[in-house]
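::Encoded backbone::
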Amino acid sequence: MKNIISPLLLGSLALSGCATPSGALHSVPSLELTADAETVPVGTTNRDAADDPAIWRNAKYPEKSLIIGTDKRAGLYVYGLDGSKKSFLPDGELNNVDLREVMIHGEMTVLVGASMRNDPINAQIGLYRLNPQSAELESIGKYPAGPGEAYGFCLGQDSGGELFAYMIEKSGFVREITLDFSAATPSARITREYKLASQPEGCVVDDRTGRLYVGEENAAIWLFDLNADNFAPQRFANVNGQELVADVEGLALAPEGNVGGYLVASSQGDNAYVLYDLVTGIYVNRFRLIDGTVDGTSETDGIEVILGDFGPEYPDGLMVVQDGENEGGTQNFKLISWAKIKQAIAP
């Protein structure tokens, strides 16, 4: 993934210190917020099932934006902003999900990708087309992503429109896969890879700066400069039992301007969400979601943040998080206004 923008100076991001691989030592105090809405539960009951969300923002009709969520035992859900189920595509064990709007054969397409865990020996990517009008997903195909068990997943796109998938394999491999839609049949080709020391999962790409962020669950958040020839990580934040408590799970971006904004991480070990400054890597703040109009969250896996107008309830953006212990027992996703979060974390 090259020629996005010139890479920024990374010295301030190479944070020193060792990771703390076990639980909370004394986590930093957290703000307490409440969610604004929740989705209906996924179909798989009494199991760890809901995992990762993605958000498609309808620029023309923001209130008709959609949320895609994985039931990692069964397939993909599409939800409305009111939390209602719009559709479900059964496609087996899908773990993490992401999306981009891309031009395919002259047509703007909402492309959805997911990590497929149906085969624990050989990782696969599932690609889907989202129909914004019907809120339904259509399978495009399944594509090989190297040996091992598929786990984390995210998409990235460079300034020329070239699309990349990042497969986070459970044993530690981070693989860059170039997706090509120029021919009648799409193709996927592994172009670079790096193996982390232990199990990673969450990942997110900042298309503005050409940076991939990967969470190694018990160790750190790593930054890969995708503009560099050397596909190797630099430490961005430590899992230290204070600001960030193992496991680090979902990662999301709240971009501001050309390079600024926040990286948001799920601090699963103490049921919190942590924000870091994207430019400096400095810890900014953290918050939890407690019981309110809807119940709070705990043991969160995947998260997503998309900024922009989503209608009167979410005027500045939307954050969606998985709830590992939803009230009633069957897991779902919670929705939070980014305006509420931004106001709370302001100095």
In short: The chain has one helix and 25 strands. The longest helix spans residues 338-345. The CA atoms of residues 244 and 267 lie 5 Å apart.
